[in-house]
């Protein structure tokens, strides 16, 4: 594996601060670190009970490894980390995070946006929202598919 | 013998997460046609394949992808990661 | 003050994880959080003893407030945080951080890049590097000035 | 009476961080000319004003900025935050 970081798919919550500390400690020569964290948002006006995230064990890890490897190839990174949860999550909980480290901020920002764009529509996760009205699968957004064309 | 996997609402409509399928289908599209003939819930799940995505041996594929040697085919809606 | 976060200029180290937890807790409705952290990089091949950061007390806070307010006006943000250290820092130490939170990732990423671009050349900080060969002021980069033209 | 502040290598060259200056200068450029006449170290610090930035009352300004009512003027090299 090249560079610091890696990919993890897990049911448990993660400690963002500890993840970033460990990631940064494993990079060398990086002057810039960018992180993105996705949070369960209640778009149902306080009625969201939970979000359940289903994934495709085996393929998920392969897809994340590929997305990470593509980013490492494309930019001169000291490392890239992807952590994505599955299972039931409550509003306000952190769903996933990515972190990138590079000598300069430009590469770190671009790589983090690239990871997120590909995670959104090329990693086999599906979200279902449970509200007091029932349950509904979250639909993919056209703009997320369109975001890939810029890379 | 191919392991066929279903995720998200495809799994819900078909009523199971996976099954082993005895098939002579040469492409994903052929396999879909065979499955649709099984029962109405399959026909319902595969009614609009433009709303579906497919992976062959855990790699994203197309409905025209050949199945020669494939061990695992998965059907699911567009992904919503991140 | 609008939104979560704010600006802080301090001599002490900051706890990135604690900062991000507190920032996120103060935002509401944000689905996306982006952070950038700048790290003291040893470009002198292991000879860097420390970096000393001088600033302009009074003007620094005003400049950071203005940069933050400009970002809040430009994007629909749930919050923006800037923490910048001054004084002596060792290689590997965190110099500064920004964090942005928004409903969607696009605004959070753009605003974080905007904050960084303006911090680089519009906030009154100056860096001096102390190596075994002596001390030298870090020169501003033309590319940092040029980066502002995109906004 | 204006408080004049110096930062980074400007401070080092002039040898002090700040001083109160009695002046009739109407613009920043006029003030610079007055300072340059004081001593060689001022002339050296202000030799190339294109390498300098200026703030009037803690707002970035130009060398042509008027000083009417200004209480604080600061000279420094291009900033390197972040």
Top keywords for this entry?
heterotetramer, A: 151 residues, alpha+beta, Aldehyde Oxidoreductase, domain 3, B: 82 residues, Ubiquitin-like (UB roll), five-stranded mixed β-sheet, globular
Give the overall shape of chain A: globular
Measured on Cα atoms, how large is the radius of gyration of chain B?
A: 12 Å
Average pLDDT taken over every residue of chain B: 97
Considering residues with a beta carbon less than 8 A from a beta carbon on another chain, report the largest interface and each chain's count: A-C, 28 and 28 residues
Q: Output mean pLDDT of chain A.
A: 95
- Helix-strand topology string of chain B: EHEHHEEE
Morphology of chain B: globular
Q: CATH first level of chain B: which class?
A: Alpha Beta
* Total beta strands of chain A: 8
Gyration radius over CA of chain A: 16 Å
Q: What does the model show?
A:
- The complex is a heterotetramer, with 2 copies of chain A (151 residues) and 2 copies of chain B (82 residues).
- By secondary structure, chain A is an alpha+beta fold.
- Chain A has one domain (4-150): Molybdopterin biosynthesis MoaE subunit (Aldehyde Oxidoreductase, domain 3, Alpha-Beta Complex), CATH 3.90.1170.
- Chain A is 34% helix and 36% strand.
- Chain A contains 4 helices and 8 strands; from the N terminus they run βαββαβββαββα.
- Chain A has helices at 16-26, 59-74, 105-122, 142-147, and strands spanning 4-10, 32-39, 48-55, 77-85, 87-89, 94-102, 125-131, 134-137.
- In chain A, the strands form 2 sheets. A 4-stranded mixed β-sheet of chain A has the order 1-4-6-2, with helices on both faces.
- In chain A, a hairpin with a 2-residue loop joins β7 (125-131) and β8 (134-137).
- The mean pLDDT of chain A is 95.
- Chain B has 82 residues and is an alpha+beta fold.
- Chain B has a single domain (2-76), classed as Roll (Ubiquitin-like (UB roll)), CATH 3.10.20.
- Chain B is 29% helix and 26% strand.
- Chain B contains 3 helices and 5 strands; from the N terminus they run βαβααβββ.
- In chain B, strands 2-1-5-3-4 form a 5-stranded mixed β-sheet.
- The longest helix of chain B is centred in the middle third of the chain and has 11 residues, at 28-38.
- The model of chain B has no long low-confidence stretch (mean pLDDT 97).
- β2 (32-39) of chain A pairs antiparallel with β2 (32-39) of chain C, so a sheet runs across the interface.
């Amino acid at each position: 594996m090249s560079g610091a970081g890696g990919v993890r798919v897990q049911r448990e919550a993660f400690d963002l601060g500890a993840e970033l500390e460990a990631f940064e400690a494993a990079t060398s020569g990086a002057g810039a670190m960018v992180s993105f964290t996705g949070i369960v948002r209640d778009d149902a006006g306080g009625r969201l009970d939970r979000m359940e995230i289903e994934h495709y064990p085996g393929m998920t890890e392969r897809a994340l490894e590929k997305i990470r490897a593509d980013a490492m190839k494309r930019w001169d990174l000291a490392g890239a980390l992807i952590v994505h949860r599955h299972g039931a999550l409550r509003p306000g909980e952190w769903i996933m995070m990515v972190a990138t480290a590079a000598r300069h901020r430009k590469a770190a920002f671009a790589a983090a946006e690239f990871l997120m764009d590909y995670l959104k529509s090329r990693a086999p996760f599906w979200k279902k929202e449970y509200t007091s009205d029932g349950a509904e699968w979250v639909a993919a957004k056209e703009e997320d598919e369109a975001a890939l064309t810029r890379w | 013998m191919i392991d066929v996997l279903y995720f998200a609402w495809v799994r819900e409509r078909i009523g199971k997460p996976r099954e082993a399928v005895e098939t002579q289908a040469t492409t994903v599209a052929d396999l879909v046609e065979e499955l649709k003939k099984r029962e109405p819930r399959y026909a319902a799940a595969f009614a609009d394949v433009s709303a579906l995505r497919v992976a062959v041996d855990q790699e994203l594929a197309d409905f025209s992808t050949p199945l020669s040697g494939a061990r695992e085919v998965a059907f699911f809606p567009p992904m919503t990661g991140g």
